[in-house]
UniProtKB/TrEMBL annotation:
This is Na(+)/H(+) antiporter subunit C. Residues 110-134 have a biased composition (Basic and acidic residues). The chain crosses the membrane at residues 6-23, 30-49, 69-93. It comes from Glycomyces artemisiae. Residues 110-147 are annotated as: Disordered. The keyword Cell membrane applies. Keywords: Cell membrane, Membrane, Transmembrane, Transmembrane helix. It comes from the Bacteria.
Amino acid sequence: MIPNLVYVVVVGVLIGAGVTLLLERTLTRVLIGVVLVGNGVNVLILTGSEFGTPPIVGETPEDGMSDPLPQAMILTAIVITLGITAFLLALAYRSQQLLGHDEVQDDAEDRRIIDLAERDEGPDAKESGDDDLPHPVYHCAPGKEGR
């Protein structure tokens, strides 16, 4: 079976736009990117499967039935995408409530790596030059000091 060119273009656009949005720093764009990639994969699975009559035993001959496995995979992918979407939506909502925005923040180690890159030093640079860079601060639970 040769897939229709329209489906191929739709899959490419959905996955391309989804990956582009996944690379953004705001959680709402990441959320939309996950939904687009999920829908693109669902259309890809649907396009790759063979068309046929509904797989109802006794009503149609076996050679004319469509394979139910792609349909089951699409339903499973829809449920997984729904769960990931709900989790990311809750994360974005909580970030908006606590910080006033939903942009992902850099941590101390990210800032340290950015400082190394700006100074044109790679990760294999001498350790003696790292004294003036900020080091990550790790907080431990109360009463767990020194362990």
